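Ticket opened by: R.M.
Priority: normal
Category: complex prediction / small molecule

The reporter submitted a protein together with 2-oxoglutaric acid and asked that the result be attached to this ticket for the collaborator who will pick it up next week. Submitted input follows.
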Amino acid sequence: MTDIVHLPANATPDDVCAVIDDQGGVIVDRVLDADTLARLEAELTPYLDACATGRNEFAGFRTKRVGALLARSETCRELAVHPLVNSAAAQYLEPYCDALQLHFTQAVSIGRGEGAQPLHRDRGVWGSTLNRSVETQFSTIWALTDFTHANGATRFVPGSHRWDKDRHPTPEEIRFAEMAPGSVLLYNGTVLHGGGENTTERERTGVLIHYTLNWLRQEENQYLSCPPDVAHDLTPKLRSLIGYSLGGPVLGFYSTPGPPGTGVELARPETLFDRSAPPSPTLDGERFYDPVSDEAMASTATGGSDR
Ligand SMILES: O=C(O)CCC(=O)C(=O)O
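Result attached by the on-call engineer:
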């Protein structure tokens, strides 16, 4: 059984994707500098201090979790568009979508005395109907503190993304994502993992930022966690990543609520922030659906289109 592979901070997206393909995940060491870590701590600690611990085995009874990180933390915005992560995520998920979207943000602080979180596959949030041939997710856990076996480093089962769904790991097959502050664990949506047991006196804190295919429902509702008045202050790139952009040719268009004739119709989300954004040809009906050819229509009794 292999240990979790570590790569240096100058690793390329190809390096990252190759290991994730093989093992289900990889650690890139010491990506963030001390200043960035200090800013993350200053921005997130007030939210973690103010929040209650979880109330079930999965969320943990001594673990604190806070979301809406793009609205709440300027530095988390930098993490969300980190070049290595974005390039590797886009490359890894490219066979299944034409763009990424942000799926989930959460700071997770595992408190002393917390037990191990059940091992799980993140793709479970979409239920079991989505075929395994579609990889759904590219996930990151940024270490803000040391991650050690003793303090709750993420448990991780290398290679389990290729296992049969019902195969359970033996204790010897479970590894621990031990890493220094500023390092990041990158993994797919199919590999088994979970928070570790914390037997130390101090919290283990990580920032989870996950990405998914731009046509799947996001786990954290970004339009509520980061509503338009907050998204207004983000860069166009971040807004697009959150979901204020079309997913594929047409998913996510909008029309303005309000009195007749006062707003926009069938607009791309970017129009909300920039009225001069060009209209979308697909929304004007040019390629709104895949039309059925006359020959295909003639060969069926009923005809019709499945878009
Ligand atoms: O915090 C961790 O180490 C992992 C947490 C996790 O996988 C989850 O909450 O789904």
